Amino acid sequence: MPDIADLTGFALVSLGLVATPGPNMIYLISRSILQGRAAGVVSLLGVVAGFVFYMLCAAFGVSALIFALPFAFRAIQIAGGAYLLYLAWASVRPGAGSLFQPRTELPKDGPRRLFMMGFVTNLLNPKIALLYVSLLPQFLAPEKGELMVQSLALGGTQILVSFAVNLGIVMAASSVAAWFVMRPTWAKAQRWLMAVVLSGLGLSILYGG
User: Fold this and answer.
1) Relative to the CA of 161, which of 7, 12, 44, 80 has its CA 20 to 30 Å away?
2) How far is CA 26 from its chain centroid?
3) Alpha carbons 171 and 190: distance in angstroms, whole number
4) Torsional sign, CA 79, 81, 84, 90
5) pTM for this structure?
């Protein structure tokens, strides 16, 4: 079982990633604005299902297997770090728009489709794949007990943190989006802040491994 320090550290990593705008955030904001909070909550449940899928993959040995293969693990670290640096550049390159600008062309869908879209959006979210495949294994330690139990504990922590933050985003989607749209200077600052966070995380993965 991970100790409090490991759980706290992974919770902070999870908080940093979920607070950084990405596919899940923009999808939940757009759905909540277009169809209301109820649709946002249903979409969020689909996102949570995606988290559970990744957590189970980690718990049943996918992450542990990669962790046991140093070359494969390092290759994933390099790919993950490089991708985060690309996201940092993409957020501030000329012509880049704020991720808080919601997409209004989304069609209105029923609960089942909302859930599945949330699930698929999260499954294809590179940030979450990076978290479970590259970052989570770094918190695993064989001397602390079964790797499956550790993976479930860490994954459960990440899900709780992400659910709480995303639920807040759903509840305040309209206000948050309107605030950034009406304040372009702050929207630009948000993009640069995101670039700094992503760059820091990407460099720490590339050179900390």
Assistant:
1) 80
2) 11
3) 20
4) negative
5) 0.67
pLDDT digits (tens, 9 = 90+) for 127-176: 787 788 777 877 777 777 777 888 888 889 999 999 999 999 898 876 76
Distance separating alpha carbons of residues 198 and 86, to the nearest angstrom = 9
- Token pair belonging to 31: 């759905």
Q: What is the DSSP string of 139-162?
A: G--GGGS-HHHHHHHHHHHHHHHH
As a whole number of angstroms, the distance between CA 63 and CA 140 comes to: 9
The proportion of the chain whose per-residue pLDDT surpasses 70, expressed as a percent, equals 68
- Domain boundaries in the chain? 4-69+96-181
Packing angle between helix 23-35 and helix 147-171, nearest 10 degrees?
40
With residue 167 as reference, give the H or E element that holds it: helix 147-171
Please tell me the predicted confidence (pLDDT) of residue 47: 94
